[in-house]
Amino acid sequence: MDLPSSITEEIAELKTALPKVKIQTATNSFLIGSYQRTPYTCIKFTITFPSEYPSHSFIVDIKQDEVVPPGLKKKLESDLVADLPLGHYQQLVTTVTRLVQFIDNNRFLPCWKELKQVMNLLKKDDSGSTISIIESKGKIKLKLCRKKYFYNCSITVDEGYPSTTTHEDWGKACLLNLISTNLPPKLEKMLTSQALEVIRRMQDGMTAEKALVLSNPIRQPKMDDDDSKKDIGEKLTKDKLKSLKHDIDTLSTVRDLREKDASRVQGKDHVLKAHAKERKAARRAIHRITDQELKYDQEMEAKWREEEEARMSGYNFGSGNAPQPSLLSLVIFLQEKIQNVPDSKCPCCDKLALPADPNKLKFMYLPVSECKNDKEKKDRKVARTMRPIRVYCGCWYHYKCLDKFILEPPFGAECPTPGCGRRVFHPDWPDDMKRLEREWASHQARLREVEDAALFL
Ligand SMILES: [Zn+2]
Ligand SMILES: [Zn+2]
To answer: How far is the CA of 417 from the centre of ligand 1 (A)?
Structure first.
């Protein structure tokens, strides 16, 4: 093809060379066009040809919108017209090619504002955390540290961000990849999969707040699904609990006195053994029902998967709300819900929920099969009573503290963490307060029987 010898010919050449660039208007004095990489990454530009063109270069104006950071706009505009072959009608394709390359190679364009906020968040962090950015790959490497714990990961922004470009990548608008961590695998998996769930739901059009609530792997009990029901339920039980607590306080005073008597009569051992046996039986009963609840959860999950698959087979993204940008929310999640965990205090005993030494935490999660000997097995068992458990409200409790908190009155108490105050739920413990009350009362009654019997021994 002959080299162009007029603006009209240059424009014709541009149309052939870069068919993806949309030309809205083109005259001998200006050209308005746009280039769209994805629906979320589109740049509009105007090129004005001076009367001295081509011995004077044209002027490029990038339309100021969300996609190009204001600080970059001026620089980009001058870079686009740098070192052009003045005097020749060969400048247009070169400039527009540069613009296209800029858009194609800057994967953070659709989220530069979020990225800036992410950088600010990390700047404020003084725990030795680091962030590095590979712009052409749309990749962020993040090392989050707190005390002796770390969570090392990468986040890759999808080309289609805040959505994804392919069906297979759905839900990975920000692809989170764990590199390394010293959190035990069980905790890490729970936290990472919740983070992924937040992204997936935000791509589905949910706000960050809603996505966070719905991504919680610990569900609120079914009976409390409805808010109005919850209020009535709480009111009823609060009054009832007051009287129950009174009964129990009286009972335990009586029990304490009898316990003293009994141990004086025939040594405490017998009573204590009986006590432990009763408690074990009660716990077994609880766990039998937990198994049923577990089955229910599994059924619910299977149902959810089915629905999910049906939806995915239709691959209909347009039906819901627009995908929400999830990068900043993801990093906030990683900071608040993962990095900050070593700072959490158990609301019951006010001590750190995680041991200061990550190896101690790992030991709590060591598979029994990997224990070297019986002593280690025993040590592990003891250590596990202090393993951290995250409950529905997001606060971390020691296993032992939580067990007592849920199974002993006052039942259905609110989380004592300042500013939390939500009810304390965990799927491993019963959530039905009537049942908790019943079990506690019958446990106390059995305990009294045992003590009464002991008095006559
Ligand atoms: Zn505790
Ligand atoms: Zn809480």
So the answer is: 12
Q: What is the mean pLDDT of residues 303-320?
A: 55
Please check whether residues 150 and 286 belong to one and the same domain. no
The number of the ligand nearest the C-alpha atom of 422 reads 2
Quote the pLDDT of residue 434.
87
Which of 74-88, 222-236, 261-275, 420-434 ranks highest by mean pLDDT? 74-88
Question: In the predicted model, is pLDDT for residue 248 greater than 70?
Answer: no
332 part of a folded domain: no
Q: Cα–Cα distance between 204 and 333 in angstroms, integer? A: 18
Total tally of structural domains belonging to the chain: 3
- CB of 38 closer than 8 Å to CB of 165: yes
Mark whether 384 and 241 lie in a shared domain: yes
On whether both 25 and 166 belong to a single domain, the answer is no
In a domain, 398, yes or no: yes
275 and 414 inside one domain: yes
Residue 410: is the preceding peptide bond cis (ω within 30°)?
Answer: yes
B/e letters for 281-314, b = 16+ CB within 10 Å, e = fewer, are: ebeeebeeeeeebeeeeeeeeeeeeeeeeeeeee
Instruction: Give the whole-angstrom CA distance, residue 31 versus residue 23.
Output: 7
User: Could you tell me if 373 and 414 lie in one domain?
Assistant: yes
> 322 in a domain, yes or no?
no
Whole-number Å distance, alpha carbon 336 to ligand 2 midpoint, is: 14
- C-alpha 358 to ligand 2 mean position (Å): 23
Q: How far does Cα 107 stand from its chain's mean position?
A: 23
Same domain, 285 and 364: yes
DSSP H helices, 204-326, are: 208-214, 227-266, 268-314
Q: Which amino acid is at 203?
A: Q
Task: Based on the fold, state whether residues 209 and 234 are members of the same structural domain.
Answer: no
Task: Give Rg (Cα) of the chain.
Answer: 32
Looking at residue 158, which CATH number applies to its domain?
3.10.110
One domain, residues 305 and 413: yes
Ligand 1 centre to CA of 38 (Å) is 50
pLDDT tens-digit map of 152-187: 999 999 999 999 988 888 889 999 999 999 999 999
Q: Which domain holds residue 53?
A: 7-106
How far apart CA 102 and CA 279 sit, in angstroms, is 69
Alpha-carbon distance 348 to 185, whole Å?
Answer: 26
Residue-wise DSSP of 148-210: TEEEEEEEEE-TTTTS-SSSTTTT-SEEEEEEEESS-HHHHHHHHHHHHHHHHHHHTT--HHH
| Number of the ligand closest to the Cα of 350 | 1
